[in-house]
Amino acid sequence: MDRLEDSRQAPQPGAASPRGVLYPARLPTFDRLPPPDAVRQWVRWFWIPEWQIQPGRSSRQHLIAFPACNPVVEPGAVGISGPTTGGSYRDLTGTGWAVGALLRPAAVRHLVADPAALRDRYQPVDLPVLHEGVRHAMTRPGDRQTRHRRAVEAFAGWFSDTIPPPNDEALLANTMAEVIDTDPAIRTVEDAAVRVRLSTRSLQRLAGRYVGLPPSTMIRRRRLQEAAERLRTDPDTTLATVAADLGYSDHAHLANEFRSVLGLSLSSYRQRVTRADGTS
């Protein structure tokens, strides 16, 4: 799939953390910037990669994407990437940039009528005001930090002018997504339903309307991201230990899920990421 979306976290601009990125050593220049206060209910963060790839070469970026939609501005177009059900990648070539926004659920239904219909898809959209504002910010003279700050301001200003304040249901969807993504104690749909004080059926409907994925898939995505991160950052840990720490019934359960989503085994991934990072 030819797409680029934020699957990375960073404690500060310019220092992208590897969660969700399968091979961090291959990352282009990348900043993640927090949203201005006025749009925090709609955007989790803004993400801005820039790349310069030598002629005749490419850089493949493999991701375990966050379960969310991302509007993305690039030099010649605007599009929306829907939630993914598996791993995704994009081959970067030449010179380029992108400015994306990892949406909170409250913003999704104002930009996507049915997020489930956008699963594993990238849809071009005609948003000339957004495109011109962000493109102008990225191409005006200035250092990287200045250009990225201006791009976030332009993107955030467009959100403020376009999207109405979220209602109670939309805010509840935000809470659902945040709880699932940040609380490692949530391992089942029932756990999540208890935390947000909904029945499991109501939680499933909420996730379908505002995320486009079942809550069970959202939970599995977080756990797979955590598993991949553990394999990268703790090379001496055993696969059985990773599985136990993340609440899988056994090593085989984690291995099967990893393979079904990413198409490779846990041991193969560990070998590949070791070679990519240049570690022994």
Explain the overall architecture.
With 280 residues, this protein is of the alpha+beta class. The protein has 10 helices and 9 strands. Helix 2 (128-139) runs antiparallel to helix 3, helix 4 (168-182) packs across helix 5 (189-196) and helix 5 (189-196) crosses helix 6 (200-210). The two termini are 31 Å apart.
Calculate the terminal CA-CA distance, rounded to whole Å.
31 Å
Q: Helix tally?
A: 10
Share of helix among residues? 40-55%
The stretches of 5 or more residues where confidence is low (pLDDT under 50) are: 1-16
Global geometry: globular
Radius of gyration: 19 Å
Please report the total strand number as a whole number: 9
Instruction: Describe the main β-sheet briefly.
Output: 7 strands, antiparallel
Average pLDDT number: 87
> Which percent band covers the strand fraction?
15-25%
Reading the helices and strands in chain order gives EEEEEEEEHEHHHHHHHHH
Q: Which class best fits the helix and strand makeup?
A: alpha+beta
